[in-house]
Amino acid sequence: MGIRGRVIGLAVVPVAIVGMLLLFQLISGKIDDLDQSLRTRAAALTRQLAPVAEYGVVSGNTAVLHSLLNKVAFEPDVRGVAVFDDQGERLAHVGSGDWVEPAQGRLSTDRLHQVEYTDHLVYYAPITRTEVAVEDFNDEHSAGSASRPQLLGWVRQDVSRSATFQSQRDAILRSLTILLAGLCVSLFLAWRIGRRITRPILALTHTVSRIGEG
Fold it and tell me: pTM, whole model, 2 decimals?
């Protein structure tokens, strides 16, 4: 490697190292943000649907349930959504999905459940009815007994991860394109600067060689 090559390498290598580190950091953050956004949106939608579906489950009105599920199915990335009763029987569903009975997994009824697969996410939310027994006393104070939620059924939402994966790939490709473009510009500038720096040095070396040859 000559003087010009060393000057170009000295200018490009640090830029390449810093650029790759920044690219790795940005890609990692972007991928995590996209995945977390999908999970947060799907979990919130499932939580909101569970109390809304309470009336349809109690009354057995499947038309109301289908109307609710159709609105949810229009959301991005939703493959399918279904409502089960407390015995695991499917009351209504819209879209595609592996309609597994929630009771088979022995899910607890006090929280939202997430099941992760390679290409999709599944959320289960309990549909409960809370009864509060109020006792009146002779004095001015009245107290309510502890509320006890009664399980009515389950909401199941199947969310696809394909759009998120595609967005992640697009983000990686855009970042790589920006990095390569930046390296090309840096290489060109380093070549121009190196040429100006090394030209007098090379001329002096050539002159010294001619002097040495007599």
Answer: 0.65
